[in-house]
Amino acid sequence: MFGGLMLLSFSLVLVAFAGIHLWNCFDKGVATAYGHAYPRAENPGAFWVSATCSLLAVLIGLALSFVALGGLLGAF
To answer: By C-alpha distance, which of 69, 53, 55, 50 is closest to 11?
Structure first.
């Protein structure tokens, strides 16, 4: 039970942070990674790689959240 709750909380935190980063990428047009800023107009390759990684983190976090929630509810 405790492990399921921890997995659910960690995955929701992952979704929150990756979602905020993804929102900032498209809102400001600048992606950040490893302390560097990558503007969409100046370096589109690095921008899209960072945005894609954020999107994948959101999707993986959501999948983990659903699995943990299903395990907690006894569906699996």
So the answer is: 69
